[in-house]
Structure formats: C-alpha cells, structure tokens
Amino acid sequence: xxxxWLVILLIIFALIIGAGGTYxxxxxxxxxxxxxxxxxxxxSLTPTFTITPPPSSVASPSPTSNSNxxxxxxxxxxxxxxxxYKALDDSNSLYGWPNGVVLLYNGxxxxxxxxxxxxxxxxxxxxxxxxxxxxxxxxxxxxxxSNLTNEPENQEIIDSFKAN
Length: 164
Known about the structure:
This protein is of the alpha+beta class. 26% of the residues lie in helices and 25% in strands. The longest helix is centred in the N-terminal third of the chain and has 28 residues, at 2-29. The N and C termini lie far apart (89 Å).
C-alpha cells in the first residue's frame, strides 16, 4: 500500500515538473512586446546643410578583375569568377542538377549561377520556360548559364563566359 502512494506521488511530481518545463519553454518562445515610441517633432529654426563630396573619378574594380577561372575541357568553355565564389562541380554539389556542369556559389541559401549542358534547345526550354541568362551551342551541346540569385556581380561573371 505504501509503495502505491509512493508511485502516485512520483507520477504527480513528474507531471508538475513536465508542466512547469513546458510553461517555461513556451514563455521563453513568446514574442516580446515592443512599445512603439511616438516621435515628437521639435521645430528647428536653424537650417541644416549637407555637404556631398564630388563623385570619385577612380573606377571600382570589376568583380571579375581579381578572378579565378573555371575551365571545362569536356564541354569546351571557361568562365571567370571573383574571389569569394566557389566553383562546385563534384557529384555531391551537383546532386539534383542532372545536367549540371558547375554551380557557382558565393554563400547564402542558393547557388548563384548554374551552368548546365543540354542535348537540345527544347530540353532547356522545358526546364526554364522564362529563359536563361545565356545560351551557347558548343560542340553540339547547348550550354546554359542561369542567374539564380540576380546579384549584380553575376552578370559580369556570365559575360565572362566564352567557348575555348
């Protein structure tokens, strides 16, 4: 009989601990309330001036000026890409890209540029009905470059693509 009460007390204790833990968990996950401050306008009688320096005549370097090159001897092309990008052409990276030759990646949640090969124009148009950034017919294969993130430097990378 005494053992029965001990088991019941342990179950009640476990339920209390579990409920308390759940309460604390959801309490810490709750969104904090943010009080909105209402800006007050204070009239100023003193005019303010902004001095803007003249534009610099020094051109900023292009993203592909300090570049690396990816060369595909199998498909006969090369493309330049800046430091910070990675050219991924191993089977693990190309998993899910059955026509992939190389994926250019600069971090983030998506590859930046996909370079793929196709046997016909109809094949790549079926996958990309809205079009791709660049298409080249090299040695009987259609090579497409798709700008997946639309980052500004991607266009310079795509423009550096050339057949060997």
